[in-house]
Amino acid sequence: MKREPEDDFYFDDIDEENPEGKTTKRRFRINLNIILLAIILALVSVIAYRLIRWNIGTRSDYDPEEVNTNFDVEVQDVIIPLAPSNLEGREDDGKTTILCLGNNPFSDDLTETGLAGQIASLSGADVIAAPFPNSRVASYNAIYDPSTEQGMDDVFNLYYVCNSINTGDFEAMSNVASFKEDSVYSSSVNILQNVDFDDIDIIAIMYDAIDYTTLSPVDNLNDENDIMTYTGALKRSLELIQEAYPHIRIVFLSPTFAHSVDADGNYQNGDTVDLGNGAIPTYWVRAIDICTAAGVSFIDNYYGSINENNYKTYMTDYVHLNEAGRKQIAEHFVNKIIDNDHSEYNVSAADQATEAESGDSASAEGEGE
């Protein structure tokens, strides 16, 4: 009778040279130390392989010889819907009416190729423009003082415009506008006097970099409501509109990239040159803070529409927009506010589209000749 093995480490086998079938024991002892060593060697081999692969890395398309002047930016739009409670009791008339306030981005061209005109064309909304050329966000005086021309023109700066909207008193604006050679002043005052603010759905506010170039202080750390500062005037202006017309959604469109001009007529980069109150990004970032705190939407035109990389395509000089620039800003506004597109605005794609349109236009002119 075949005997069972004494333990798991011994195995019986039949000896082929034993014709009688007698069994002989062959004992194979498994050494645990050898097994442990084999496992360690396997682990070391795997680790070494992975380290070698990691060191080699993956193939990259990076070309060290390529020269690329473009830079990556993250668009800082802050889109805040109007609180539903602000619309309680108000009947929807079925159309969107937008009032545009600000300075030269709106006032330089009041036709269909202007900023307001292009917003209307792209959105289908009724768009009313009431801008004041060369006006600012910040006021020159804390209390209106018409004793000087600068003090008299304060009435066209944002705080005083919003104060007139709040009170419905446009007499001072009308008086000063009558002395202006530019008819845009009187036209804008007349529009504000006659518009029915109950019908306005959105107020779009845009100023260029004039507060930067005319040295408006950004903040007054001792008085956040100081209207002689950029942030104080913006804060109080938004509050005045919201107080009088809570149903109106306010959208602040930031300035674009711009240059300042020094005493010798040389352009200075507004992105880096501090004229005494910070460079343009200082005004830009504080405007985001004020708008966010007030529940006002902020459209980033500084990085999201016209920046240091593409400004030559969209501006006529160091600060003023051309038709393509106004279209770029109008598309950005409509994309975010009217179409409610919550994805990041692709300024690079917009640039390429504009360049393609320019190329098609040039080709058409060439064929015409």
Radius of gyration, Cα only, in angstroms? Answer: 35 Å
Largest sheet features: 5 strands, parallel
Structural classification: alpha/beta
List the total number of helices.
Answer: 14
Order of helices and strands: EEHEHHEHHHHEHHEEEHEHHHH
Query: Proportion of β residues?
Result: 5-15%
Average pLDDT metric? 86
| Cα shape | elongated
How far the N terminus sits from the C terminus, by CA atoms, comes to 113 Å
Uncertain residue segments: 5-15, 67-71, 361-369
Give a description of the structure.
This protein is of the alpha/beta class. It has helices spanning 32-56, 104-107, 115-123, 149-153, 158-167, 171-177, 183-194, 210-213, 230-244, 280-294, 301-304, 311-314, 323-338, 347-368, and strands at residues 11-14, 23-26, 97-102, 126-129, 202-206, 249-253, 259-261, 267-269, 297-299. Strands 4-3-5-6-9 form a five-stranded parallel beta sheet, with helices on both faces. It has a two-stranded antiparallel ribbon with strand order 1-2. A two-stranded antiparallel sheet has the order 7-8. Helix 5 packs parallel to helix 9 and helix 9 (230-244) runs parallel beside helix 10 (280-294). The longest helix has 25 residues, at 32-56. Residues 5-15, 67-71 and 361-369 have low confidence and may be disordered.
